[in-house]
């Protein structure tokens, strides 16, 4: 079945460690996104990529990094510079941009807890 | 500034009741899109509907209906005869054609009790 796979589903990290969250899609979508969700808040955009080897910062990119070496994959690294990394992270994809099409397809998320 | 407000943080209803989730948006764009997404306990958001700013026609899909009124900048979502499976967080989202970004509301948690 086509969709988006995020792993791991749960992740615990010690302070000072970098962690990488995986996001893979087999929908042949050009655009991919990383969102952060905190309790009682809407989703906030971290990074997005509209084509391979290109990505743009979202609203809260500080302390995060991404790569887009393959169309199917858009991993997110939460670095030690991210001051409050405990959150629920959602990866999404869509056909080019979120304009006329608009529909985003989401993975089931990764919950990161910093101990 | 672009903003989406979902004033209802949590709603609790008993099965078979009708429930309306409110959404008010702010935008200076003449062209924009509005969406509703459902986030069940499994975590992934599921697309429900998209509306563009030129189409104020209300829509019904099964037990779901949407009321889009530009005059009040609202895009409300009604579930008729609610079911336990409707329990989820619902997000109202606006797309700005100027910024190319999605603006999420804070979400409304709906609990449907049997």
Structure in words:
The complex is a heterodimer of chains A (115) and B (114). Chain A is an all-beta fold and 115 residues long. Helix content of chain A is 0%, strand content 49%. Chain A has no helices and eleven strands. Chain A has strands at residues 4-7, 10-13, 19-25, 31-37, 43-51, 54-57, 64-66, 76-78, 87-94, 105-106, 110-114. In chain A, the strands form two sheets. In chain A, strands 2, 4, 5, 6, 9, 10 and 11 form a seven-stranded mixed β-sheet that branches. In chain A, strand 5 and strand 6 (54-57) form a beta hairpin. Chain A is globular. Chain B is mainly β and 114 residues long. Chain B is built from no helices and twelve strands. Chain B has strands spanning 3-5, 10-14, 19-21, 24-26, 32-39, 46-52, 59-61, 64-69, 74-79, 88-96, 101-104, 108-113. In chain B, strands 2, 5, 6, 10, 11 and 12 form a six-stranded mixed β-sheet that branches. In chain B, strands 3-9-8-7 form a four-stranded antiparallel β-sheet, with no helix packed on it. A two-stranded antiparallel sheet of chain B has the order 1-4. In chain B, strand 8 and strand 9 form a beta hairpin. Chain B is globular, with a radius of gyration of 14 Å. The model of chain B has no long low-confidence stretch (mean pLDDT 93). Chain A binds chain B through residues 4, 40-45, 58-59, 88, 90, 92, 97-99, 102-109, and chain B through 4, 9, 33, 35, 37, 42-47, 50, 91, 93, 95, 97, 100-107.
